[in-house]
Amino acid sequence: MAKPKLSQVVVFGVDVRGGGAGASAAPDVATARKLASLLQRYQVSATWAFERFDTPVAQLLASSSPKHEIALLWNETPATRSADAFQIAGQLRDRVAQAQQLDISLQSIAADPRGMLPYHSLARYGFRSVRATRAAGSSGIRSIQPQSLRHGLWGVPVSCFWPHTSRLMQAFSLRALLNQQRLVSQGRDALHVVVDFELMQTSGTGCWQQLERVFQQTVQLRSEGKLRSCRLADIDLLVRAETSAQPARSILRRTA
To answer: Which residues lie closer than 8 Å to 122 by C-beta, 6 or more apart?
Structure first.
């Protein structure tokens, strides 16, 4: 199989923490409506990762347009030993069952990159994509490529989290993000932007206007046929389509 390769693709995600007993405050519905409205205005689909699915914010997305993906935000203590795999598999099974009761089909998971995940269990429960949650000190914006994991899963690195944790760096972050999106539209890899819902709740108007500028450029490049926007759940089909489209080259054929 050819090495996975994506080009001219941008993936948008949203991390929604809170809503559970002992967790941070429940996600604000007004903020969710504002963000969903912004995505609807520009017809951009996103992958919303939740710690809990029985929240008004998750229910709000069920009737939203365009069609968003609901993913699992894995907030359990990171496992560092393979011996913990059975315990994690049981916890995953329970979370998948909770989602199914709410008619939610999970295909993507966001988890702490410092921990271990039982890929065989994820595949069995229907997951296709894995990505990291925000790590302390994460900065910089880079293009990405999906990584082939075991059991048919795709690891999808994150290009950047939005907004920047430092308000002083926010303007620089916007310029870097817009520039990186233009580079991706020229055929250089893919871009994966994850919005931190909790930070957006406390962000001022300027931060929201900057995020809208990102979506505006997305739509412009998309209308020019230079960029595609998608959800994490779409990565598997996109990679397979691009891989199958690559011409096979025999090792016996002389290269020019």
So the answer is: 92, 109, 130, 151, 153
Distance CA 196, CA 16 (A): 7
- Closest-CA residue to 194 (of 107, 110, 128): 110
State whether residue 189 is helix, strand or coil. coil
pLDDT at 256 over 60: no
Tell me, what amino acid is at 190?
A
The pairing of strands 154-155 and 147-148 is antiparallel
DSSP-assigned states of every residue in 87-98: HHHHHHHHHHHH
The 10s digit of each residue's pLDDT in 203-213 is: 999 999 999 99
Q: Which residue has the higher pLDDT, 82 or 97?
A: 97
Q: Which residue has the higher pLDDT, 140 or 134?
A: 134
Take residue 151 and report the two structure tokens written for it: 């059991």
Provide the pairing of β-strand 160-162 with 154-155: unpaired
The token pair at 232 is 């994490």
User: How far is CA 233 from its chain centroid?
Assistant: 9
Q: Cα–Cα distance between 10 and 163 in angstroms, integer?
A: 17
pLDDT tens string 93-120 = 999 999 999 999 999 999 988 888 889 9
Q: pTM higher than 0.85 for the full model?
A: yes
Residues 165, 140: Cα–Cα separation, whole Å? 12
